[in-house]
């Protein structure tokens, strides 16, 4: 549904998890190509960062929408933030852990006795703690080093294990020619959705039509980026001209396997996956044992988008 183009655009903002890069290319396409504007929305895209919990500004009304990990969203709800997932762009989390190829670490079971870089509150930390709990490993046996600059300590060999996104820092490590091994939490039975778009319970209750328009534009933007990656990359570079275009295309190529269109539909969410994520976090004492998983997501907006497109 497209509103009268003469009507005033509704200003809203969405907060990405990090600075601009290829993992958010569909968001920038939706903004730059006028897709949201055609749906009556003037969307401002705000950046996050390693120390920014995007659920906070959405919960307090600073932003209307945001991006986080499925695991992070459940942790935020455990803290009382009434945030609700409306679309999961990545069917798998990009979180991983990299070690140098000559390391004696050949599995996440080998983490004890080594130095691990930790970003507090980041979903790499959540994934790390969930995997260690599943493996029965006491994290006191691992030296945790809190550090934010990307890859600095790892490349200098001052930490043994670096948390990464496989489609960002993982891509950079490969581009630098650093021989390495990467461990993925799903290989140890811990999975999560990545790049989950969310809003608040209040927004869904009071303005569901606005949430639908935002979701429609978002999914159109991601579909467009999939079909026209060069044009979408041009849109991304309007927001950060200092990016390396070849590197960003490498990151984009590493992003698409995570997106993995479920049933041919970008953004799809299923209850079974949310329960799986929730149970892993409960087992690791990262969220409340009585937490209501069903309240954490609302799949109707993605479902309505595709139902309307096929009707």
From TrEMBL:
Signal peptide: none annotated. GO terms for molecular function: metal ion binding; transferase activity. Residues 24-232 form the SsuA/THI5-like domain. Keywords: Iron, Metal-binding, Pyridoxal phosphate, Thiamine biosynthesis, Transferase. It catalyses: N(6)-(pyridoxal phosphate)-L-lysyl-[4-amino-5-hydroxymethyl-2-methylpyrimidine phosphate synthase] + L-histidyl-[4-amino-5-hydroxymethyl-2-methylpyrimidine phosphate synthase] + 2 Fe(3+) + 4 H2O = L-lysyl-[4-amino-5-hydroxymethyl-2-methylpyrimidine phosphate synthase] + (2S)-2-amino-5-hydroxy-4-oxopentanoyl-[4-amino-5-hydroxymethyl-2-methylpyrimidine phosphate synthase] + 4-amino-2-methyl-5-(phosphooxymethyl)pyrimidine + 3-oxopropanoate + 2 Fe(2+) + 2 H(+). Pathway: Cofactor biosynthesis; thiamine diphosphate biosynthesis. GO terms for biological process: thiamine biosynthetic process. Homodimer. This is Thiamine pyrimidine synthase. It comes from Candidatus Kentrum sp. FW.
């Amino acid at each position: 549904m497209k509103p009268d183009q003469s009507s005033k655009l509704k200003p809203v903002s969405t907060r990405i998890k990090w600075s601009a890069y290829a993992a958010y290319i569909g968001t920038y396409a939706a903004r730059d190509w006028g897709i949201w504007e055609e749906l009556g929305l003037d969307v401002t895209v705000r950046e996050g960062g390693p120390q920014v919990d995007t659920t906070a500004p959405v919960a307090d009304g600073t932003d209307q929408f945001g991006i986080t990990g499925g695991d992070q969203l459940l942790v935020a709800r455990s803290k009382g933030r009434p945030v609700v997932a409306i679309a999961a762009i990545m069917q798998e989390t990009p979180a991983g852990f990299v070690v140098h190829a000559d390391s004696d670490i050949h599995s996440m079971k080998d983490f004890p006795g080594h130095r691990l870089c930790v970003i507090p509150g980041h979903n790499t930390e959540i994934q790390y703690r969930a995997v260690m709990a599943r493996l029965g490993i006491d994290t006191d046996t691992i030296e945790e080093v809190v550090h934010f600059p990307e890859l600095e300590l790892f490349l200098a060999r001052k930490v043994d294990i670096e948390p990464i996104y496989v489609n960002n820092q993982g891509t950079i490590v490969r581009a630098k020619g650093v021989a390495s091994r990467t461990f993925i939490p799903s290989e140890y039975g811990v999975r999560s959705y990545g790049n989950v778009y969310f809003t608040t319970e209040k927004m869904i209750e009071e303005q569901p039509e606005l949430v639908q328009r935002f979701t429609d534009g978002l999914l159109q933007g991601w579909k467009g980026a999939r079909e026209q990656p060069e044009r979408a990359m041009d849109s991304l570079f309007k927001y950060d001209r200092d990016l390396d275009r070849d590197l960003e295309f490498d990151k984009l190529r590493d992003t698409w396997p995570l997106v993995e269109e479920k049933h041919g539909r970008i953004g799809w969410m299923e209850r079974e996956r949310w329960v799986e994520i929730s149970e892993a976090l409960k087992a690791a004492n990262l969220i409340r044992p009585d937490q209501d998983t069903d309240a954490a997501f609302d799949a109707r907006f993605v479902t309505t988008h595709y139902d309307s497109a096929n009707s």
